[in-house]
Predict the structure.
Amino acid sequence: MPFAELQVYCVERADVTGGVCLVRCVGGVARAGQVYAAGESRLWLRGIERHGRSTESFGAGHTARVRLAGAVVALLSRGQVLTRVPPDGHGPAELEAWLATGPPLTDEPHPRTLRGLAVGGMQDDLLPEATRLRWGRLAVAAAYRCAAAEGASDLVRGIELAFVRGYLLREFGPGRGGDPAAVCREALALVDLTPAEAAARARVWRELPRAEIVHLRHLKILLRWTGAARPHLVDGDPLAVALDAWSRVRPGLP
């Protein structure tokens, strides 16, 4: 299935049957007749207008006024990304069954598409909590697939995982949202500097080689999401002590 994504600029009008939106194509080619996912909901692309004329398609980097069918149009927000799905949709049950087969990375949906769908579902507070948690588990699987497809380092993969796991902890708490201690252990295992070493480098970061600056930046992002576990750790716990030390250093990292 060809890939396509649309980013919403604004909803111009909407009712219970659908509406008209100004969108930008941020990937692939959008064509009339395609189906797009907005969380668990589905939207049908019924018409495209560019420069005052109807057209059948438009590609990445271009904007258009589109007519979408589906009551959820009224709930779309600026910046929201809609991802093309097959007519029968990519719901969590279909994706869970698909992932269980160990599909090749080249299969649809591609890793980044899967991540977009899963993170969108995880963050959609209009969905039941149980469904959002299922999307969160799919987002974890997508992080591993993205890392494998893109040859990402363990640290970059760790950032993706910390984002998803930190978000789930923040939204749903320990237990349903995950194990705070495990989140911390996995993230801190990827940190190859002490807080003192990182602080020393941060003071002169503009003088460092680009690769070291990027590395410090990655550590800062990783530790931001790991911090979501801190409220669930007991004071004095070695993991809590480590996070507290990094919380004092992190603001100074580039």
Summary: The longest helix spans residues 129-150. The CA atoms of residues 39 and 107 lie 21 Å apart. Strands lie at 4-15, 18-31, 35-38, 41-50, 53-55, 57-59, 63-69, 81-85.
